[in-house]
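Weekly puzzle thread! Below is a chain. First person to post its structure in token form gets bragging rights.
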Amino acid sequence: MLNSGRPRGGSGEWEQPFWQQRGWIASAGFLLVLLVLGGVAMATRGDGGGDPARAGAGPSPSPTADAGGNGGGGGKGDDGRPAGCRTDDSDQAKPSKAPKDFRWKANGTGLVPVSKTVGPLKYDGPVWSCFAHTPMGAVLAAHSITDHLSYTGWREVAERQIVPGAGRDALIAERAKVEDKPTSGKPDVGGYEGFTVLSYDKEAATLMLLMRGPGNEYASTSVTVRWQDGDWKLAPDTDGTIYAGMSKVSDSRGFVTWEV
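Winning reply:
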């Protein structure tokens, strides 16, 4: 189970719907974007979503800035990966446990799971990139990209790590209306607890992320990523929505949990 040293006590807010409580909004950066982009409405509709094909609704992408943290000028290898970005992509099985070298890395007031072998291997300001072309690489990319969308530098993340098209344009337009989450202050309560891979092929993956909030309450939501320009990128719906099927769950059973 996640053990990040953050307080686990209740906040006295549980009379409200769980997705509207400050503890959940603060527990990880991506929940801020969830609220902005209409995730609450999706949750109340019970929309399961999560179809990897949704990422292809926008126009065909053109070559963009280097997603591997080279500022767009580093060139690419014959396999489309950014220069200097090489990973072991042999394990194509859906993961049943976290990587052996998994650790937590601070991002603002929260913690994000990372791995020296699976990714991210490159850190260029807010853009953490170069993930393995595997199911586990997709999982780590989904955590990193969504979390960074709440902080200063989110626009660069959106431009370099979200599939181009109407969905990205809509997301940027809505995100621009919201203040950035502070990068310092009291550590987040709760955080990322686990994940499961709902679907995967080498072109796209849909992951379900498990969050823990105050009082050990849990919620899950699904995120889709697509392999493009040699790395995983977030794939929103055409209306900018990046989360599907937000729901409250009783515990972490059925999920691969992050272990220390």
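Puzzle host: Confirmed. Bonus trivia for everyone else. The chain has one domain: 18-57+90-257.
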